[in-house]
Amino acid sequence: MLSLAMCSCACTRDTTPAPVSETGSLEARFVSVSTGTARDTTTNLVWTTHDNEQNFPWPEAEAHCKDLRLDERADWRLPEIEELDAIYDEAHDNACGERTCHLDRAITLTDPYVWSGTSRSGGRRFYIDFKFGTQLAPLIRPRLVRRVLCVRPG
Question: What is the CATH number of domain 30-152?
Fold first, then answer.
């Protein structure tokens, strides 16, 4: 279920079925690259496999990804809202702190609310709620805090 609450963009969800192997079984969407990272075989993006386990205000979330050095790479960034939306998957019910999140088990969250790098005028930044798949863009002041996943090109 996708809610466009406070979203001025035309947001859509990719409903393309997962690839099926020659034997008829579903292929894994995420493939481990190294400890702490996995490549999305659909988009070829590499994701951190765990959130940062603490809430950050948006500027610190952005800095966290820009400063991240993982897999001998320094090109990490906050994902765009569409990239986060693309990994939301109602077919998966995973523990997410005290809640349930809907995304592949390859990625572990400790809270369903995750910052994106997508901005909106007036000091607003998008985040996604992985419990419901909702995209929100509230004011980030005085001090709105969320979890962080980082992404880089594959």
Answer: 3.10.100
